[in-house]
User: Fold Probable membrane transporter protein from Ciceribacter selenitireducens ATCC BAA-1503.
Amino acid sequence: MPPVSELILFAGLLVVAGGVAGLLAGVFGIGGGAVLVPVFYQIFGLAGIDDAVRMHLAVGTSIAIIVPTSLRSFAAHRRRGAVDMQLLRGWVVAVPLGAILAAVIAAEASSEALRLIFAVITLLLASRMMFFSSRWHLGSDLPGEPLRFVVGTGIGVFSGLMGIGGGVLNNTFMSLYGRPIHQAVATSAGVGVLISLPGLFGYIWAGWGKEGLPLMSTGFINWIAVALIIPVTLVVAPYGAKIAHAMSKRQLEIGFGLFLIFVSARFFYSLYG
Assistant:
């Protein structure tokens, strides 16, 4: 059992992480998972949690926290009329299907595999956002079916494996087809809802009965972390949405890209540092 001072430090770090995650959820239309996963990975390691389940627990707990964060962020963006509701309705099956498939894969994947997926995808997305944002387009409008269904399922799979709300992937998809970054950000909050709800139950199932899980865990969800962070993210997310609508397209892209590079570097370091 860690000393009380260490437990207090962990709790404080979690609360700070929740504030940052909630703010980013509003600014970038993400569920905060891109912040929470690396933070959880570090904190769970300091707490002595088995490496075999540490990354899985970080991803699953992040998914659980994304549920209320995404709902709150989605509501704030929808009130501004910026969400593409037609796209979301078309993904009601595709995105949750991908999130469930991600949980099935995560049940068998190693910690190293999950960290590598996280690092590679975030680096690719950062490069696209920062260096090809204004020059690289695949079309003037979103593709039709069945390609749109396939993309939605893919967003659900990769986001579920990374413990994120799908914002980083959906922002890229919509931007590639000429949609405004502010609309992409707003719609991504809704994508986070479609990923996190089935993902929550998927990660409970994937980690059910696993050894090495900490106190107050159900599968790969740690409810202590959830209880500490959710209230903070709910309060902060709407302020992030206000910031997003006050920023230019290029400011959002540069900020988003720098953030993703930092996250990617952190996980590459954990693998090869």
Remarks:
- Residues 140 and 178 are 5 Å apart (CA to CA).
